[in-house]
Amino acid sequence: MRNDAEWRTLLLAGVCYAVWLLLAFGWADLPDIVRVLLLIPTITLHSSLQHEFLHGHPFRNQELNDLLISPPIGVLVPYLRFKSCHLTHHINENITDPYDDPESYYLDRDVWVSLPGWLRSLLVANNTLVGRVTLGPALATVGFMRSECVRAKAGDAIIPKVWLRHFLAVGLLFWLVANYGSLPPTAYFLAAYFGMGLLMVRSFIEHQAVEKANQRSVIIETRGPLSLLFLNNNFHSVHHAYPSLAWYRIPEFFRENRDRFLRMNGGYRYESYWEVFRRFAFRPKEPVAWPIEGNRKRRGDTT
After folding, report:
1. What is the β-pairing status of strands 269-270 and 219-220?
2. pTM (2 decimals)?
3. Mean pLDDT per 10-residue interval, the chain, length 303 residues
């Protein structure tokens, strides 16, 4: 049974916010570069906590969860839009689909061949791990905002309201950093950018495009600093099978059911993130064009 408030998640969120406050508004004696390097994983952890909170933790009251985790310290994406898109992503038969999965990095093959060569080269580079960490935040943010504009023009009235509140909140954040912070706003933005880049180490490898939907989510077995930073989403196949399972219960649940999960996901696994880096640091993991037969181009879609 779950508790009304899971103390581990609350404690971790409290520590995350406390460290963020100290790095952004205190510890002025530390060099800016040191604070930026420490802010990067702190912002990444906050993004991982946002993922945990939107799945119903730590409280049963989802409005309270949203209120606690929505401060836009990661700057680039409004929490409520991330929440909506991520829950759509969990419709398992749609994972990696370039139209139905809002978190897909794949493109329709007809769209892919229509792109200019320079853009195809950029997207191929984005399919390497180094490219995803460095180029990924910019490409993902631009692509996401573009798709949000398309949805808003199609009549989704909530999107402009969410983005307006986000821009106002981010503006307030940078005003506070500029006037009361202990590092320049440009340095804070750099930390937010690469905080998202570090998070993309996880999303880079967590899905593959294959026919069977239950074989599209990865298992990375070795636990380490990145496993904690990603709140055990390296066991991503477990998360997709049991999305409400709390982060601190996932590793033991996987160990108890390891063979079943590896059969279920077709053996899509890596030993560690170091193995992922060795294999894909400068080599594309997969083609950008969605390889599954039956892919279709929808009339009116251009992305």
Report:
1. parallel
2. 0.93
3. 74 97 94 96 98 95 96 97 94 88 93 96 97 97 95 94 97 98 96 98 95 94 93 97 96 96 96 96 95 58 39
